[in-house]
Design brief:
The protein has 14 helices and 13 strands. It is an alpha/beta fold and about 450 residues long. The strands form 2 sheets. Strands 3-4-5-6-2-1-7 form a 7-stranded mixed sheet, with helices on one face. It has a 6-stranded mixed sheet with strand order 9-10-8-11-12-13, with helices on both faces.
């Protein structure tokens, strides 16, 4: 493989910038541009202080970290030049490396080499980008667990069981005179059922992982001036949405993330739902209803100082059979024209609040935590599949496993299920990388940033 180089730190001005280089000619190229104060030979896991030169011109004072193959991130000879931060200096050092024989790395190419060289599997490689993109502590913790190989271990256990079962089937086919068909069938069915349960847990874990990664989509809906934007501002603890006495101020959606006990909520403030002749507002109302219908959680807010009308009833109909919270706002006015009993058939969670005095807001937060069942999202000792690619393979593996069980229970010859077991192994291999195509590998690493 060629020697690759890239800037690994984010663009902009900073205290330190890092230029990373990996490949067989790594130190040969480095020696052309770097003069250390101590000219001792390269040793792995050491740092040298010196200067980067372009001919006789000093470019920068730097620290260079040395990593010798195979004990490096990529398993190749590797170095990291720690320069002063700033686009100009880092670009000059990068250009010097390129001029002396290195090639510009593609996005994620360092991690791709770690995968291709066998240091990590594909789930661990994907965990790297998940760590970088983490929005909460729990998502980061889940990604670190995956980087440690926890998901890989689960997949490996299932694969080993299936391969052992496949070996038993092959023995049965080759030496039928020594086989007790009923005993072998029962053994294989038990093995398949055990691993079906494991795959079910992995599929369920994807749901938890999706929550950690994408957040719980939460729509705030209600009539104009019910207090939606004020509620968003309170949840965010900042003046994000415009609040006025004029109805219809919010015409488009405002989306922001909040985190409760490590779980992200993607909160969407929507336009007030009402009948209107205003063309722009009509679009906003339509969009509000569409977002509510696609949300994981709906917070419907009503003005307790106003009587229920047809627009409120239309909003209530959206809540039927949905995960929802009903807020009765403006209790500070002490003018209750809404009977709480009217709402009980639409939601079990009814809270009286005042967005002006903030009364009831803490009760709302506690209910939000409860509804998301955050206690079920546990990254300690459990794998969280936070990648839709993994889920697709798990579902396909489950389908083949189910067919294998049905085939045996139908009294079909045992050798028939070897086809299904091989399909399961193929799908699980796609998760860890044993049976993944080059196109999929390229697509995965294209999501990475340069220098990683």
């Amino acid at each position: 493989m060629s020697t690759i180089v890239a800037i690994s730190t984010a663009p902009g001005i900073g205290g330190i910038g890092i230029i990373r280089m990996s490949g067989k000619d790594c130190f040969k190229i480095l020696n052309k541009i770097f003069k250390p104060i101590n000219n001792s030979t390269e040793k792995g896991y050491t740092i040298k202080y010196g200067k980067i030169f372009d001919g006789e011109e000093i470019i920068d004072e730097v620290l260079v970290s040395y990593f010798l193959e195979p004990k490096s991130y990529t398993t190749e000879n590797m170095c990291e030049i720690n320069s002063h931060g700033g686009n100009i200096i880092m670009k000059k050092i990068l250009d010097l490396c390129l001029k002396n024989g290195a090639e510009l790395a593609e996005p994620g190419e360092f991690t791709k080499r770690a995968f291709l060289n066998g240091r990590i599997d594909l789930t661990q490689a994907e965990a790297v980008i998940d760590i970088i993109n983490s929005k909460t502590d729990k998502e980061a913790e889940a990604s670190v667990n995956q980087l440690e190989g926890n998901l890989s271990k689960k997949i490996k256990e299932i694969r080993e069981d299936l391969i052992a079962g496949l070996a038993d089937i092959e023995v049965t086919i080759d030496y039928p005179e020594y086989d007790e068909v009923e005993v072998t069938n029962n053994k294989i069915i038990k093995m398949l059922e055990k691993n079906e349960n494991k795959l079910n847990k992995l599929e369920q874990a994807f749901t938890n992982g999706k929550i950690l990664r994408e957040g719980i989509k939460t729509a705030i809906i209600g009539r104009p001036n019910a207090g939606k934007s004020s509620l968003l501002n309170l949840l965010l603890n900042e003046e994000r949405a415009i609040v006025t006495d004029v109805e219809g101020t919010t015409r488009d959606t405002i989306e922001e993330y909040i985190t409760l006990d490590g779980i992200p909520f993607k909160v969407v403030d929507t336009a007030g739902i009402r009948e209107t002749e205003d063309t722009v507002e009509k679009i906003g109302v339509k969009k509000a209803i569409e977002i509510a219908n696609k949300s994981d959680l709906i917070i419907a807010i009503f003005d307790i100082s106003k009587e229920i009308n047809d627009e409120d009833k239309n909003i209530l109909n959206i809540l039927k059979n949905r995960n929802s919270i009903i807020l009765l706002n403006k209790i500070d006015l002490n003018n209750y024209l809404i009977n709480e009993e009217l709402f009980k058939e639409y939601s079990e969670n009814i809270i009286k609040i005042s967005t002006k005095t903030q009364e009831g807001i803490e009760d709302l937060i506690q209910v939000m935590k409860k509804l998301t069942q955050t206690d079920e999202i546990n990254v300690d000792g459990e794998n969280i599949v936070i990648n839709s690619r993994h889920k697709i393979s798990v579902v396909k593996a489950k389908e083949s496993l189910k067919k294998a069980i049905e085939t045996l229970e139908a009294g079909m010859p045992i050798d028939v299920i070897s086809i299904y077991i091989k399909e399961i192994l193929e799908e699980l291999g796609k998760i860890t990388g044993e049976s993944v195509t080059d196109d999929v590998i390229s697509e995965i690493f294209a999501k990475f940033c340069l220098g990683k």
